[in-house]
Amino acid sequence: MTQNERMSLPIWKKILLLIVSIIFFVIQITLLIMAFDFSFSYTASNVKWIYFLTLGIGFSFVLYILSKSISIHYKLTWSILILMFPLPFCMLYVLNGSSRHLSKRKMTKINTAIGKIRVNDAFEELKENDAVGGNLVRVVQHSTFAPVYKDYSFKYFSDVYEKYLDMLEEIKKAKHYIFMEYFIIADGFLMNNLYPILEQKGKEGLQIKILYDDIGSKKVMSRSLLKKLSTIPNCKINNYEPLGLNVNFLVNYRDHRKILIIDGRVAYCGGDNLADEYIHKKERFGYWRDNCAKYEGSIVFSFLMLFGEMWYVSTREKLPNDLPIDKTLTSSNGYAMVFGDGPSNNFNPAYDLFQSLISSAQKYVYISTPYFVIDDSMINTIALKAKSGVDVRILMPKIPDKKTVFYMGRGNYREILKAGGKIYEYSPGFNHAKNIIVDDSYAFIGTINMDYRSLFLHYECGALILHDSQIINMKQDFEQAIKDSEKVQYIRWKKRPWYQKLIAYVLNLLAPMF
Q1: Residue 218 CB neighbour total at 10 angstroms
Q2: How confident is the model at residue 8 (pLDDT cuts 50, 70, 90)?
Q3: Hey, which residues does 463 pair with through a beta bridge?
Q4: What proportion of the chain, given as a percentage, has pLDDT over 70?
Q5: Could you give the angle at which helices 349-360 and 376-387 cross, rounded to 10 degrees?
Q6: pLDDT tens digit string along 196-208?
Q7: Long-range contacts for 80-86 (Cβ within 8 Å, ≥24 apart)?
Q8: pTM here?
């Protein structure tokens, strides 16, 4: 069963967007020329008021943008472009900015459908034992539903291949349901081995629900694979599509989550998708470094809520209220909080958490990310920590998957290097892991990159881990990756090729649009 196979950005939308954009640009340029070229004196007087009317519309848009509680970089970028060319960029802003924030009516509809059931939140206990940790949690809870758990188990996989093997064994043990939500599902070795297990479980009567992002999977998920998955008994497969009528030509707001839930007993979440490069069965950009986490216990309920949200948005189908949820684990040696950024949440909890996590560091802060396209506020926060003597280390790829975005990230090194921060580029290949580790006490692991798209546009998820012994494993894995990496020297960085500097300079001005 499939709702849509290739609904996002069909050819007619591409052609329509191109035609409309050209028309608006031509109109805008024509008005500009005719308003100030006296050779058109017979029409200039009539055209000028039209031209200045477009400026008035643009100015009104700018006032609206400036009044919004969004990044100052967003405000500046859009304001400049709209004042330069009001008609085309007002149109693009409407198309680009209308989908991320749903109306209150739709948000209420989603929240009512998925329900926010009360759980045994360990927040008060955490707050009493650790004020800093309590503050970190409060930052996220201010924006979204995010209980704190103590009755959970957390296992860190430094290599996604190990997670893949563990995942197959857990799926084989499934008795009730298997829910999967991934940005990318690709043909290849991984899916060839996963498919027969899912098929067998479907024949046994288990509920199987698979949600994939159509844009993320578009070039790598064949129709034959989609058809095979669709024919599994008791399996429903859908691609992410916003709730209701939504004209989003740029398809800018995607489901970037990576979640697997089994029987309400086990959940996996990390930077990995269901594709061969993540388990080293296909080489892309050298060695692919990534990691993932396995969760057990009542914390799986939070992942179930996240999946239920996107499943309802995509299908208008509610998850059953009587789904089994395992609660046999009693206690762990730390705390954990799962959170997501989805259609029912108009805030940016990851951005606030990252700022707070970095600011809380007293000894060290380690950041692993494939992209580093962030605003001045985040850069200044990181640089300030380095200036204060905190050991700041950032791990980036040496072999990028997107060169222009990589050059943009390199362009943001200056202030951090000058402040004494250390930046490394992973020599074996592509670093895709998304982690922040602080003082052996706090860690983030999930799907969120250090870039505008993840922090402000995509629908994401992850977990804040507090005082768990696995944090040391995460730290050791990061330090091993540092040993395999090349340290960026400020003098050498200044001498990077001129075209990289130019690309970084120009595109970072437009970073909020990427």
Answers
A1: 15
A2: very low
A3: 338, 445
A4: 80
A5: 10
A6: 999 999 999 999 9
A7: 82/58, 83/55, 83/58, 83/59, 85/25, 85/28, 86/28, 86/54, 86/55, 86/57, 86/58, 86/61
A8: 0.86
